[in-house]
């Protein structure tokens, strides 16, 4: 079910890339370009932090959904999807976080 949700969102975001900006919020965001999308991701990340600090679990879930959504918009802007992130998470599964991070460090 979760994979289906992500696929539907991916399909919708791709369709919104081609839509007129006055037809949807996402189409308008795409039309404004990467800086506008990054601004929204930053705003949503801040709201997640504030919700967590405030201790309201319902608000934390709501704000996290907004952050995830806007991150999916950013990925779509770059021609990527949730599947790219899920594949990376699968690659990391079972790896020590320290080992994984060190594998990315420049020599």
Number of helices: 6
What is the average of the pLDDT values?
91
- CATH architecture label name: Orthogonal Bundle
Biggest sheet layout: none
- Estimate the strand proportion: under 5%
Tell me the helix content. Answer: over 70%
Number of strands: 0
CATH class categorisation = Mainly Alpha
And the CATH topology? Helix Hairpins
For the record, what is the CATH homologous superfamily label? MazG-like
Sequence stretches where pLDDT stays below 50 over 5 or more residues: none
What shape does the CA trace take?
globular
How many individual domains? 1
Plain-language structure description:
The chain has 107 residues and is mainly α. It has one domain: Orthogonal Bundle (Helix Hairpins). 79% of the residues lie in helices and 0% in strands. It has 6 helices and no strands. α1 packs across α4 and α3 packs antiparallel against α4. The mean pLDDT is 91.
Main attributes?
mainly alpha, single chain, 0% strand, 79% helix, Helix Hairpins, 107 residues
Concise overview:
The protein has 107 residues and is mainly α.
What is the element layout, followed by pairings?
Elements: H1 2-17, H2 25-32, H3 34-54, H4 57-77, H5 82-92, H6 97-104
